[in-house]
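Our consortium's second objective concerns turning raw sequence data into structural hypotheses that experimental partners can test. To show how far this objective has progressed, the report includes one record in full. It was chosen at random from the queue rather than selected for favorable results. The single chain below, 231 residues long, was entered without modification.
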Amino acid sequence: MIKFEHVGLRYGIGPEVLKDVSFELSAGSFHFLTGPSGAGKTSLMRLMYLGKKPTRGLINIFGQNINSASRKVLTQSRQKIGTVFQDFRLIQHLNAFDNIALPLRIKGQNEKEIKSNVDELMHWVGLEDCAKALPSTLSGGQQQRVAIARAIIAKPKLLLADEPTGNLDERIGHRLMTLFEKLNQMGTTIVIATHSESIMETYKHPRMILSNHTLHISDSASPYNSSEGAL
C-alpha cells in the first residue's frame, strides 16, 4: 500500500524536517503516528496524501512511483485517499450535508444513494440535526466531525487523519474510533496522527514514532521499545 525508501524532506533551503525515513504499510493495516511536537508528523502525512513530493528518496503508493508520476496519476491516486486535516478545510458556502456528500458526487453516485449514505453517517457522528448548517455556524468539534464524515463517506482505500479526536469529548472520540475500526475491518488502510495516550492504549494498534525527524516502528504493547525499518 505504502512504501518509503530513505525519504528526506526539506522546505526551501532550510534543514531537513524528515531524514532517511523508510517503512512499509500493508493494505488493511491500522497504525498510530505519534511523536513530540515538531518531529515532522504533519510533513509525513503531507507526503502520504500526495500533497508534497520528497526532497530525496523514493515513495510508492498504490503501486505507483510518486516521484515520477504524472499529474493525472497523482489525481487518480488522491481520489483513493481520505484525509482529515487539523484545520478541517470545509467548503464554507456548502452546508454540512453537502460538504459530506462532495466525494460521492465527484464519483457520480446518484442523489438517492447519496442522501441515504450521508444521512446514516451524520446520525452515526451525531450531526443529524446539522445537515443544513453552514460551517461558520458550527462549533469546532462539529466541524471536525463533518470533516471526518467527508473523509470516510466514500470508503477510501487509505485514510489519513491528523488528530481527528483532538477537539472532541471522550464519548464522541471513542464513537469515532469505533467507526474507524469498522472502516478498517472493511479493508481501508488507516494512519491516525495523535498525541493521545488514552486512545493509543485503548485501541491496540502499532505505532509509527517520529523522533528527531526519523521514524521508528513499535508494536502497541511496547511504545518505547522501537525498532527501525519496515513492518
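The partners drew two points from this record. The domain at 1-80+159-231 is CATH 3.40.50.300 (Rossmann fold). Residues 221-231 have pLDDT under 50 and may be disordered. Both points have been shared with the crystallography group to help prioritize constructs.
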